[in-house]
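Troubleshooting log. The previous structure file for this entry was overwritten by mistake, so regenerating from the original sequence record. Sequence copied from the archived sheet and checked twice against the printout by T.R.
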Amino acid sequence: MKPEIKIGTRGSKLALWQANWVKSELIKKFPDLSIETVIIKTKGDKILDVPLAKVGGKGLFVKEIEEALISNHVDIAVHSMKDMPAELLDGLAIGAIPEREIPVDVLISKNNLFLSQLPRKARIGTSSLRRLAQIRHIRPDLVILPLRGNLDTRIRKLDSGEMDAIVLAAAGVKRLGLESLITEYLSEDTMLPAVGQGALCIEIRKDDGDVVEFTDSLDHPITRNVVMGERAFLKKLEGGCQIPIAGHGKAWENRFSIIGLVADLEGKTIIKDTLSGPLESSESVGTALADKLLERGAKQLLENLTAV
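Regenerated output below.
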């Protein structure tokens, strides 16, 4: 056994919460283990004045951490799964996916108004094209403003009067103990979550036997099957931050179902469908759902979006 491991993480409050949670869980299981947290600044942390879709694709918040993992500067990396590209760098693997937190989005608004209650021309902030497209689909009268920065920064923009409402992932709000601020939990019918939302990704070097015993202890098999099904859906669509794609899987009684969505930026065209199958075949089900959406017109949508 390796007596000491280094965890690579971003330096935001939420990222540190996630890394410290992994650290505490490992120490509970392996009390003699020495763990050091290494903070790494990513491109997504450095560029805060440009919408994510214009900075680049998936990987903005993980690339530098993955490079530290490959070069042996850290032994494991802790990410938000929704930040992970559909394909990992050569030599890396998902070592564990712990049990998932609630995957939905939430609305935080002034005067505790629900999304349906916001007045015309109300200013709503989001960092995601996925959210933008779905908001425009149901409330085309709202003004959508780009929202970047960590959770505290985003909430400050609401408090300062720059915005009337903001949309965030419920998991991050809950993990930082800010549930009292939530106005509304958005149903998946209103706002389908991002692939992997609410789940953590513990990334390791492929075949690194020194850490596999540790990471295996944190894996939640049902969550892994569900999330890997969502990621197979994303991979088939070759989705990144520049494209409004959503996918949410569920498991019950050894069955897996997934709802997937592809939209245009205006929210006028939404292609959405669902598929189910055996839980152990979740990746095949996710891929098949992507094929189904592509056949129904998502292929043309994606081509139009990537050509912009």
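The radius of gyration is 19 Å. Archived copy saved in two places this time.
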